[in-house]
Design a protein that fits this description.
The protein is of the alpha/beta class. The protein has one domain: Vaccinia Virus protein VP39 (Rossmann fold, 3-Layer(aba) Sandwich). Helices cover 28% and strands 25% of the residues. Helix 2 packs across helix 3 and helix 9 runs antiparallel to helix 10. The longest helix has 13 residues. The protein is globular. The termini are far apart. The structure holds S-adenosylmethionine. S-adenosylmethionine binds next to helix 3 and helix 5.
C-alpha cells in the first residue's frame, strides 16, 4: 500500500514524503504547496523522468511549466538546461522562484503560447509537459507542429490527467456530485481527460514520430488520492482538496496517462 504523509516533526518542520517518490520527497512541502497548480508535479515529473534518457547538459523544454516545480526538479536532479515555458504565469515571477532555488544558471523562464514557440527547430534534446499538454495538444495536428523542435531521436514525454477506461453515460455519480467543499469535480472541459489508447491513436499519425509508450498509470488514482489527502492537511493551498471524489473513485476511472515518443531522423517522409 502506498504511503503519503504530511506531518509535523518535533522541530516543527513540515515534511511531505512518499515511498514511491524518493527524489521528490526531498523538496520542501511549503514550496510545493505554494507553487503547485495540480497534482504534485514533482511526483509526476519523477515518474516520467524515470522513463526518459536524460544526460547532464541536455536542453529540455518544460512546456506549460506553471510555476516551474518540474523545471527546478529537472535542473537539480538531472543537471540539464531547462527552458521553463508557460502562458499564465509571468516569467518574472518564475525567475524569482528559480533564484530562490538557485537554478538561474540552468532554468530560463519564457512566456509563450504553445502554438507559437520562439525556438529554432531541432534545438531541444527533450520536451516534457506535466499536467498541461491536454490544454493545448489534443488536436490532430499539434504533435506535427511540436516534434520538429526536438533533434532527431529527441524525446517528448507528457503526463496528463486521464482515464483507466472510457466514462459511461451518464457520468458516474461520484464525479458529478457536489463535494462537501461546495464544488463539483467534473466540469465539461475535462473532456480532455482521455484513455491511454486515445493518446496513442492521437500520436500515431506522424511518419517522423514513434510512440514509445502510452499508458495509464496503474496506481494513478491512488497517487492522486495520496496527494489530495496530503493537501487537505496542508495550511496554504490554491484549490480545495478533492479527497472525496478520488476516494470514491477507487482508482477505477481517474488516473494519469503517460505518453512518450521519439522523433525519427527524417521530417519529410
Ligand atoms: C494545470 S497547470 C500545470 C502547471 C504545472 N505544469 C504544474 O504541474 O504545476 C497548466 C499549465 O498549462 C499552461 N498552459 C495552458 N495552455 C497553454 C498554452 N496554450 N500555451 C502554453 N501554456 C499553456 C498554463 O499556463 C498552466 O500553467
Amino acid at each position: 500500500m502506498s504511503m503519503s504523509a504530511i506531518y509535523w516533526q518535533g522541530t516543527g518542520k513540515h515534511v511531505l514524503t512518499h515511498e514511491k517518490f524518493p527524489r521528490a520527497s526531498r523538496y520542501a512541502p511549503e514550496w510545493v504547496f505554494k507553487n503547485e497548480m495540480g497534482p504534485n508535479p514533482l511526483w509526476l515529473t519523477e515518474r516520467l523522468c524515470g522513463k526518459l534518457k536524460l544526460e547532464a547538459g541536455m536542453r529540455v523544454l518544460d512546456l506549460g511549466c506553471g510555476r516551474g516545480l518540474s523545471s527546478v526538479f529537472l535542473a537539480k536532479e538531472y543537471d540539464v538546461q531547462v527552458w521553463a515555458l508557460d502562458l499564465w504565469i509571468r516569467p518574472s515571477e518564475n525567475l524569482s522562484q528559480f533564484a530562490l532555488a538557485r537554478v538561474t544558471d540552468k532554468v530560463f523562464p519564457i512566456h509563450a503560447e504553445a502554438h507559437t514557440l520562439p525556438f529554432a527547430h531541432e534545438f531541444f534534446d527533450c520536451i516534457i509537459s506535466i499536467d498541461a499538454y491536454h490544454y493545448f495538444g489534443t488536436d490532430l495536428t499539434y504533435m506535427g507542429y511540436l516534434a520538429p523542435f526536438v533533434k532527431p531521436r529527441g524525446q517528448i514525454g507528457i503526463v496528463v490527467p486521464g482515464l483507466h477506461q472510457p466514462l459511461p453515460t451518464p457520468l458516474p455519480a461520484h464525479l458529478a456530485e457536489k463535494q462537501a467543499h461546495g464544488s463539483t469535480f467534473w466540469t465539461w472541459d475535462m473532456c480532455t481527460f482521455q484513455t491511454a489508447t486515445w493518446w496513442h491513436d492521437l500520436w500515431s499519425h506522424y511518419p517522423f514520430f514513434d510512440v514509445r509508450e502510452a499508458q495509464a498509470m496503474p496506481d494513478g488514482g491512488d497517487i492522486w488520492l495520496d496527494w489530495e489527502k496530503a493537501k487537505s492537511g496542508a495550511r496554504e493551498t490554491t484549490f480545495p482538496a478533492d479527497v472525496e471524489v478520488l476516494a470514491s473513485d477507487e482508482n477505477r476511472f481517474l488516473t494519469f496517462v503517460e505518453a512518450i515518443g521519439q522523433r525519427t531522423a527524417c521530417l519529410s517522409s
